[in-house]
Amino acid sequence: SLTEGVENILNLQAKIESDASNKYLAMAAWLDRNGFDNTASYLYKQAEEEREHFLKIFKFITDMGGIAITPSVPEVQQEFASFRDVFEIALQNEIAVTQAINKVIAKCRAENDYATEDFMMWYVAEQREEEKNARRALELFELINVNEADGKFQLDLQISKIG
Ligand code: OFO
């Protein structure tokens, strides 16, 4: 079973994952309409992965005898200043999610909930990977000159190969 504190913070984390899915969806749509089709596919896939992260927590709450709350869907950012800006924001979002996960684990420890802590360790590894991928995308903006003739095309191709 879950303590009230752990149940609340898990519902909050479920909402954060659901929001992350919608944020990636908006980014994918922006990339799609600006001609970055390969990277758009990559972020559509990320949006689906975040939806799975959400569902995994949602079901865990129920499995542990808690009440899983369907999160509300807020407005997300739809427009971006540039191709690069999408990944600057993606990295900031991933760092914020990592910090939120760390808070869930701190709560588990404070309440001696080792089952939930164990469950959350999967997310720790996942975040490490996703932060790395977002950083790699930004590195590619340093390596490939976006102003070269086919710079945007190359960036679109190379970034889509990261994940
Ligand atoms: Fe849910 O993995 Fe990133 O945010």
TrEMBL record:
Main subcellular location: cytoplasm
Keywords, comma-separated and alphabetical: Cytoplasm, Iron, Iron storage, Metal-binding, Oxidoreductase
The keyword Coiled coil is annotated on this UniProt entry: no
Reactions that this protein is recorded to catalyse: 4 Fe(2+) + O2 + 6 H2O = 4 iron(III) oxide-hydroxide + 12 H(+)
EC number: 1.16.3.2
Family matches, as SUPFAM superfamilies: Ferritin-like
Compartments reported by the entry: Cytoplasm
Gene3D superfamilies attached to this UniProt entry: 1.20.1260.10
Domain Ferritin-like diiron stretches: 1-145
Keyword field contains Transmembrane helix: no
Function: Iron-storage protein.
PANTHER family: BACTERIAL NON-HEME FERRITIN (PTHR11431:SF127), FERRITIN (PTHR11431)
Family per record: Belongs to the ferritin family. Prokaryotic subfamily.
Protein name: Ferritin
Organism for this UniProt entry: Flavobacterium endoglycinae
Lineage: Bacteria, Pseudomonadati, Bacteroidota, Flavobacteriia, Flavobacteriales
